[in-house]
Amino acid sequence: MMVPRLRPPYYAVIFTSLRRETDAGYAETAARMLALAEREPGFLGAESSRSADGLGITVSYWRDEASIGRWREQSEHRLARDNGRSQWYRQFHVRVARVERDYGFSADD
């Protein structure tokens, strides 16, 4: 599902990952992280996709850098990151960007 258009400026945290073969607890943890993020002040939404070869891209949107910092330090999120390094990911990158423009198209409009 796509996040509705947002009013800039806001921030995007782009998490790109390559998964390992193991899957133990991954789906449950991912769902829990989204549920927790949705309760965080400053969280605006998220979009995620994963290809058959294990490449995943999740973009979460945040009001400001302070909100991103609070989420980064959230205790369950920190534990999930540790598990990601030790169990689920072969590689990942995190990129943080300030969004200056937001526009799009929908055939439904």
Structure overview:
With 109 residues, this protein is an alpha+beta fold. The chain has a single domain (10-99), classed as Alpha-Beta Plaits, CATH 3.30.70. Helices cover 33% and strands 34% of the residues. It is built from three helices and four strands. The protein has a four-stranded antiparallel sheet. Strand 2 (43-50) and strand 3 form a beta hairpin. Helix 1 runs antiparallel to helix 3. The longest helix is centred in the C-terminal third of the chain and has 14 residues, at 75-88. It starts with 9 loop residues before the first strand and ends in a 10-residue tail after the last strand.
CATH topology name, in short, is Alpha-Beta Plaits
Helix content: 25-40%
- Mean pLDDT, all residues: 93
Distance between the termini: 16 Å
Low-pLDDT regions: none
Number of domains: 1
CATH classification, class level: Alpha Beta
Q: Identify the overall geometry.
A: globular
Helix/strand class: alpha+beta
What would you say the CATH architecture is? Answer: 2-Layer Sandwich
Sheet with the most strands, sense and barrel status: 4 strands, antiparallel
Strand content: 25-35%
Give the strand tally.
Answer: 4
Spatial strand sequence of the major β-sheet:
2-3-1-4
Helices and strands, in order, run as: EHEEHHE
Number of helices: 3
Q: From the alpha carbons, calculate the radius of gyration and give it in angstroms.
A: 15 Å
Pfam family, one: ABM
Domain ABM: 9-81
GO molecular function: monooxygenase activity
Keywords: Monooxygenase, Oxidoreductase
